[in-house]
Amino acid sequence: MNYLKIIISFIALSAMVACQKDYLERYPLDTVSEGVFFNQVSDMKIYMNQFYNRGNFPIVEYNTRADLSSDINMTDATINTRLRGTNTINSGGNFDYTDIRAVNYFLENYKKCDADFETYKQYVGEAYFFRAFFYFGELKMFGGVPWIPFVLKTTSPELYSAREPRNVIADNIIADLDTAAMYLSADKTNGCSRINKWIALLYQSRVALYEGTWEKYHNGTAFGVSNAQPAKYFNKAAEAASAVMNSGLYDVYSTGKPESDYFDFFGLRDYSSNKEVLFWVQTSVALNITTPSTLYHLQFPEQHGLTKSLADSYLCKDGVPIATSPLFKGYANIVDETTDRDPRFKQTIFTPDAVWYNNNGKITYWSECYAKLFTTAGLTPPTGYTRRKSYNPNVAYHSQSGEEAPSILFRYAEVLLNYAEAKAELGTITQGDIDISIKKLRNRVGMPNLTLAGIPTDPNWDFPTLSPVINEIRRERKIELCLENLRLDDIMRWAAADELIIGKRPKGATKSQFTKKPSYPADEKGFIDVFQVAMPNGWQFNPGRDYLYPVSESQIVLNPNLTQNPGWE
To answer: What's 114's domain CATH number?
Structure first.
């Protein structure tokens, strides 16, 4: 029987046979396990291939939607229900063990292969990585969940397992990633075929930093853990990030053009040999592997806009915040606002001098669009701040149906930021640590280094009760990683809804600068205020409830050993 057909049948049948009486029950497939599969190395590879496009791995979506559930990107089409505080008891869905069970099935059967373990340990490493990946998704949504490291049967008592504390789940995820790193290839590879050791370590630094900051900043609340040990996780995050940094395989992409390197990096078509990218999704129109309308939607920014919160975060070129720098030119228009600012501002948000489209050498500049904003269908970014990051005006294939726009999943910049933040949270960060992390990112765009001995005070720091270095590392993370789907995770793990969400509304640029005035109201200072009427009191995120999703009532009925998350009882 064709092995690929077996796998396709296995995936389809796994989805169909979910037991109605319990959320964890899945029936094993004898047709796969009885001496037919897992006997050859090729079986391992075929089986693991399925996970490269399951459970949001890879994450390929419209770029305009990235970080939409946060304070830096917004749409006027809807108001995020979680931030608004209007989620209901059934908003979170169910614990999803489909992918976890499929990985467990592999881990219970791969030893049937008689080949030398060295010939297939890569696929075992992938299994441990993907189990960690899928469990981390559950941890972020629900906190503690049942830990099931094997395939459940209909008679398994673990069908009615209670939830483990969140730190137990985090420890198990980190342990899986340790195992993954031990077995996965240490080669850099092309970054788009199979994951490697360094991706597992990057991801481990992400998980450990998430849990460490969660335990620190949620300590003493209903979302905290008993005997919190944030330092343990910060040390692990720094250790994992440091291992990637010391590998010598990766670095920050730069061609010596600070005015364009950050923007150009995200518009590349191929990252096979790129020194900053650890993993990416390759696309090809010829092979019918495309992304849906990515460049098209960035070319025509309908209903999506970046926020004043993001725009205000960019320092001036002297390394000083806009509140105190003499270089800040004010908000009269987008040209003034971006003048003498961190070059990443203009490389993330469109300005009139940017190329909008290059049609066989015929250049159209964004100035033409800027003059038509709010007058032409497709040119109505609600905030006036229009995303430029990830755009490429030189690629002719802009389509609503599908186009070649590769997606970066993991890049070295995150490693550097995870390292710096972990060291800062430990209270052990040195100027040397800054120089091997933050300095690299600032060098790319020609910004002054962050100097620990002389951090300029910002009267508008987002977190005035925290140290200057933590504020500045969080700022660096906000602008460097913006629109890469990490911002909401940061807000949740920092317990930062009080500072960034509650009572606030996403604002835009000054309304008066546009030839055609937007229909949206302006606030008392003249900034576009899209939700002034719909949300007069701002987001009403409930800090005693909304940091986690509810466990659905149906699951608790099916398994009385499950408990509900705080605030949803």
So the answer is: 1.25.40.390
